[in-house]
Amino acid sequence: MAAYGLYSHIQSNRHRSIALLIGLFFLVYVLLYAGALAAEALSTNADLNTILQQAWIDFVKAAPFATIGTALWIVIAYYFHQSIIDALTGGREVARAEQPRLYNLLENLCISRGITMPKLKVIDSDALNAFATGMNAKQYSITVTTGLLNRLDDAEIEAVLGHELTHIRNGDVRMMVVAVIIAGIVSFVAELVFRLWFYNGFSVRSSRDDRKGGGALVAILIAVGLLVLAYALSFIIRLALSRSREFLADAGSVELTKNPDAMISALRKIEGRGELPGATSAVMEMCVDNPREEFGDLFDTHPSVDSRVAALVKFAGGHDPGPLALPPQADGPDAQPEANQLPPGGPWGPAAGPDGDAARDTAVPPATPDAPAQGPWGPPSDQSGGPWGPHSDR
Fold first, then answer.
1. How far apart are CA 145 and CA 122, in angstroms?
2. Which pTM value belongs to this model?
3. Is residue 212 within 8 Å of 44, Cβ to Cβ?
4. Residue 164 annotated in active site
5. For position 137, what pLDDT does the model report?
6. How many other C-beta atoms can be found within 10 angstroms of the C-beta atom of residue 219?
7. For position 124, what pLDDT does the model report?
8. Are 82 and 139 spatial neighbours (Cβ–Cβ below 8 Å)?
9. Positive or negative CA dihedral for 314, 318, 324, 326?
10. CA-wise closest residue to 120 among 135, 108, 136, 132
11. CA gap 194, 189 in Å, rounded
12. 165 φ, ψ to 5°?
């Protein structure tokens, strides 16, 4: 199945992602050995070589259980990750009747390219963001915030939907879910071991072992180093799985919509406004934009909006309006969204044409000699037409 976007880069990215995920899975075993090494160091008074050998024996015995436990966690996450994400973010599934504008935009995109339509979910939040989740065609879903729906126009929302559809078609979503699952295991085990050490007399035991030759202390230092390495690598691998995919998804959106300017303006509106309350870092990594920053851009999970826009300008011929300042959003149940599904000016068209004509009056124009009198809805059905043409052509 062909993917949308930069095809050669997508193919190499898939291979690299598989290799990274395999490496990430083996980090679980690194953590297991580190735990076995620490346990032996804290319970025996042998020399370093003896501790290392005994830790390896413990590791071999525990490895099958670690494998089964990890596989079980992956199975649980496979079937229930969407429910977990919905619980964290407040996402709810919507149908056409609830969100006709959003539903129609996604449906048209899917029909135009023969894509199976994913489920649609909405988060009631002023944040401007969207993300895709799922492990297979039956699970795929795209979630958007109400803030995004209210602040972006139809072309921009279509670009965002195209971005998320590209993530799905390119296998990014499945890879990210698996990476987040395994990285979550690594983070959990690493934190658990650290807590057990520091809350169970680590400093007292290590100093006592140090007086008896130093083998246990060195073993513990090795175990700590392995834990830190595994934790850091799990985080870095998650970044590697995220950054390059955003450029590809932006390019795929442009290929789907044929509108690079819409993708650029959508990114500019979303920029810095995508923080989802209650969402974990793993969820934010799946979003169109992740505004969370750590140590500058060294550990950012997404490339900057500036770099993504620059790529769209250079390779897709788009135009960058620069950072956009959005007006305050109206409050209350009757507030109209900034980007309504109707054209500006109401159902009769825009308030002003591109050449600066005055706003079109919504009143019914008077009858002309060539057109019989008519009501607000045009001429009677048995007459040929009026200023808007016959009804049969509508």
1. 5
2. 0.71
3. no
4. yes
5. 86
6. 28
7. 96
8. yes
9. negative
10. 132
11. 9
12. -60, -40
Q: List the structure tokens of 263.
A: 């993708």
pLDDT means per 10 residues, the chain with 394 residues, are 51 68 79 87 84 92 86 82 89 95 96 91 96 90 97 97 92 79 72 64 48 70 86 71 80 94 97 89 87 61 89 94 81 44 41 42 42 43 43 42
Q: What does the pLDDT read at residue 179?
A: 73
- Asked if residues 120 and 102 have their Cβ atoms less than 8 Å apart, the reply is yes
- Among 40, 156, 158, 164, the active-site one is 164
CA-closest candidate to residue 153, choices 341, 353, 331, 327: 341
Token couple for 126: 């002023």
Q: From 341, 345, 328, 320, select the one nearest 266 (Cα to Cα).
A: 320
pLDDT attached to residue 16: 67
Handedness of CA 243, 244, 245, 246 (dihedral sign): positive
